[in-house]
Amino acid sequence: MKLNTLLHKDAERGPKLAVALVLLFACSLPLFLTDYRLFQATMVLVYAIAILGLNLLTGFTGQISLGHGAFFAMGAYVAAVLMDQFQVPYWATIPIAAAVCLVVGFLFGLPILKLEGHYLALATFSLAVALPQLLKHKSLEAWTGGVQGIVLSKAAPPIESLLGMHLSPDRWLYLVTLAIAAGLFLAAWHLLRGRIGRALIAIRDQPVAASSMGVNIVLFKNLAFAVSALYTGVAGALSAIAVAFVAPDSFTVFLSLSLMAGVVIGGLASIPGALFGALFLQFIPNLAGGISKAAPWAIYGSLLILCMFVAPGGAAATGRALVRRIRSWKRPASVARITEQST
């Protein structure tokens, strides 16, 4: 019994150590990266938040959405309009965008989540198609800027330096985005480990059994959709603040499809997989453009297919399999060491 306890504790140290090392590495990036590279790192965190939100709905609840680019755009425009029209501080626009997307996501989910499978996917896809056109409409042009969009100023840091490091706008926004992303990832981890997370997974795997056990399927589906929209809206607001520009053509249907691709590449029902999917979305299109200027999207599609062949379960699942294989090689020595400790 004591041996099993020691083995269990030894196995738990790995993920905690990995999270600590990733956070330490992320916090150290402003020390040696240029402002442009930090901007790219900020966008990786932004996409990771959006992909995590979509994964809460698709990976953990089993509801396919091809319209989350609309919530990304909604969060971006809420932040941009508040900053441009009402001079609201950039940091105050983030919770407002989150609240707006939470309410809209819940209300939109009430009728739409009565659908299942490809019907639900098609209904959410229509939202991604319609919203960019609505943003261009003349009745909203005074607020949204129409086709021209809204140009914002870079968010200035409240202090000039931190721990001896000069804070440019890009460095400051990276640190702010990192703090928000860490908080949202931690919140998702706690959410999924609790009663709500178990209910969502039950709805995904066995909805009939979940209903018979007293799970309110309609309520939990709506909550999942609303929280998913909240995460995506926060990502959109952070994107608008970081890029300092929003326009309808930046939030086309391709954004929704890219977010879904990021979920699949990172790994369904995987919290750390959101980071791998975000890295793919940020850097692979640039890599494809560098390989071929004439047909970059053909290269992008080929790389996407290659990723599916190499890691069919997603990057996170492949990483876990690799870690298990390495541990199996080291297990005899580890068991001998723990046996000595137990005796």
UniProtKB/TrEMBL annotation:
The keyword Membrane applies. It holds the Pfam family BPD_transp_2. Keywords: Cell membrane, Membrane, Transmembrane, Transmembrane helix. It is found in: Cell membrane. The keyword Aminoacyl-tRNA synthetase does not apply. The chain crosses the membrane at residues 17-33, 39-57, 64-83, 89-110, 117-135, 172-192, 225-247, 259-285, 297-323. It is a multi-pass membrane protein. InterPro entries: ABC_transp_permease, LivM-like. Its main location: membrane. This is Branched-chain amino acid ABC transporter permease.
